[in-house]
């Protein structure tokens, strides 16, 4: 519902802070599919998420933060295929697997 309300004003960019947290599993897919549709329509988005599989699929740029610091950043393919940070590796392998 919050996504629908925010789209009523036709924003140039939409910020998502853990959009799938506390959702039932069947709702997670619906929210992620909605976000994919928005991206395909040209909506610019900034998304904070733990959904690494989704991130790998749709992101144009990935920034991994650890204790409020940028630990790693890169294009998705490079980010996931050659992780430099141990924390980033642990997070991506647990969440994307």
Description:
With 97 residues, the chain is an alpha+beta fold. The protein is built from five helices and four strands; from the N terminus they run H-E-H-E-H-E-E-H-H. It has helices at 2-7, 25-40, 52-58, 76-81, 86-96; strands spanning 13-17, 44-48, 62-66, 69-74. It has a two-stranded parallel sheet. The protein has a two-stranded antiparallel sheet with strand order 3-4. Strand 1, helix 2 (25-40) and strand 2 (44-48) form a beta-alpha-beta unit. It is globular, with a radius of gyration of 14 Å. The N and C termini lie far apart (29 Å). The mean pLDDT is 83.
Q: How do the strands and helices of this protein lay out in sequence?
A:
Elements: H1 2-7, E1 13-17, H2 25-40, E2 44-48, H3 52-58, E3 62-66, E4 69-74, H4 76-81, H5 86-96
Parallel strand pairs: 1-2
Antiparallel strand pairs: 3-4
Helix pairs in contact: 3-5
């Amino acid at each position: 519902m919050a996504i629908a309300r925010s789209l009523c004003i036709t924003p140039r960019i939409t910020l998502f802070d853990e959009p799938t947290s506390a959702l039932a599993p069947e709702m997670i897919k619906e929210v992620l599919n909605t976000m994919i549709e928005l991206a395909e329509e040209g909506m610019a988005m900034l998304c904070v998420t733990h959904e690494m599989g989704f991130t790998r699929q749709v992101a144009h740029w990935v920034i991994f933060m650890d204790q409020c610091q940028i630990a790693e950043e890169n294009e998705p393919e490079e980010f996931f295929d050659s992780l430099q940070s141990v924390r980033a590796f642990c997070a991506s392998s647990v969440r994307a697997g």
